[in-house]
């Protein structure tokens, strides 16, 4: 997602590529936030594309929450996708399903005396957290908070994005469960301090003017400035077409 690694990967269709890399095995939950046009969609699509290039549906599964109905729709019919939701009742149901799956994994771990789940990783990906906090906060905040609190050992990862860097849209009770935060360009230094506990995001360049975007990655106590990598569109399209092909759907 954020920086290149020297090892090359083959895309599912056979194209060799050097993908950006961020291990979510060590960083179980990720919050991505910044002003409109700061690179949020680029970062999010980079993460999903990297997963599709590296993992089969047996190893990675998605729950996609897409309130704006445009950002994640192209991934809705992939064999990786367990739930895709864009409407209020469906969003609540999808998050309830994810929490039920998480609890079932803990039951399995208890039965088999495991401290960590030995199966697939489940990625709960939310494109616009602010929409949920404005219209469905009462129903969704407890579900998200619980998922973020208990998901790590069960290989359940929450990836939440928002372009509204405010306490009302990123509640502290939820934010404190995200040890890894990608802070993109913000409107002011107060938003930067709330997001990454430091000023700096407000001084990041506009990706549309620079042709590339930057962000600050707050990983626990560490803070580093990173280049936000953008996949060529054909790489993402290649991965989607491969996993959407009849032979993969029939797996």
Question: How are the elements arranged and paired?
Answer:
Layout: E1 9-10, E2 16-17, E3 30-33, H1 40-54, E4 60-65, E5 81-85, H2 88-111, E6 121-126, H3 129-135, H4 137-150, E7 156-162, H5 172-175, E8 180-183, H6 189-196, H7 207-210, E9 213-219, E10 222-228, H8 233-244, H9 246-249
Parallel strand pairs: 3-7, 3-8, 4-5, 4-6, 6-7
Antiparallel strand pairs: 1-2, 8-9, 9-10
Helix pairs in contact: 1-8, 2-4, 3-4
Description:
With 251 residues, the chain is α/β, with parallel strands linked by helices. The protein is built from nine helices and ten strands. Helix 1 crosses helix 8 and helix 2 packs parallel to helix 4.
Question: How far apart are the termini?
Answer: 27 Å
Largest sheet report: 8 strands, mixed
The helix/strand class is: alpha/beta
The level of helicity is: 25-40%
- Spans where pLDDT lies below 50 across 5 or more residues: 1-9, 15-20
Strand order of the largest sheet: 5-4-6-7-3-8-9-10
What is the N-to-C succession of helices and strands?
Answer: EEEHEEHEHHEHEHHEEHH
Summarize the structure.
By secondary structure, the protein is α/β, with parallel strands linked by helices.
């Amino acid at each position: 997602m954020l920086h290149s690694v020297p090892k090359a990967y083959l895309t599912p269709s056979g194209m060799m590529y050097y993908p950006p890399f961020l291990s979510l095995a060590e960083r179980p939950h990720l919050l991505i936030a910044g002003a409109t046009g700061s690179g949020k969609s680029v970062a999010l699509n980079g993460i999903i594309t990297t997963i599709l290039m590296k993992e089969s549906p047996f190893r990675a599964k998605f729950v996609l929450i897409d309130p704006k109905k445009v950002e994640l729709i192209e991934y809705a019919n992939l064999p990786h996708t367990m739930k895709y939701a864009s409407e209020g009742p469906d969003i609540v149901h999808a998050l309830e399903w994810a929490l039920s799956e998480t609890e079932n994994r803990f039951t399995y771990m208890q039965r088999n005396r495991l401290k960590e789940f030995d199966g697939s990783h489940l990625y709960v990906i939310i494109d616009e957290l602010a929409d949920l906090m404005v219209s469905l906060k009462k129903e969704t905040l407890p579900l998200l908070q619980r998922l973020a609190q208990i998901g790590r050992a069960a290989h359940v990862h929450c990836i939440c994005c928002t372009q509204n860097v405010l306490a009302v849209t990123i509640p502290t009770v939820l934010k404190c469960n995200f040890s890894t935060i990608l802070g993109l360009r913000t409107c002011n230094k107060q938003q930067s301090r709330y997001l990454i506990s430091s000023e700096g995001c407000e001084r990041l360049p506009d990706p549309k003017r620079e042709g590339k975007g930057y962000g600050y990655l707050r990983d626990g106590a560490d803070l580093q400035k990173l280049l936000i990598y953008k996949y060529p569109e054909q790489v993402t399209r290649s991965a989607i077409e491969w996993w959407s092909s009849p032979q993969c759907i029939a797996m």
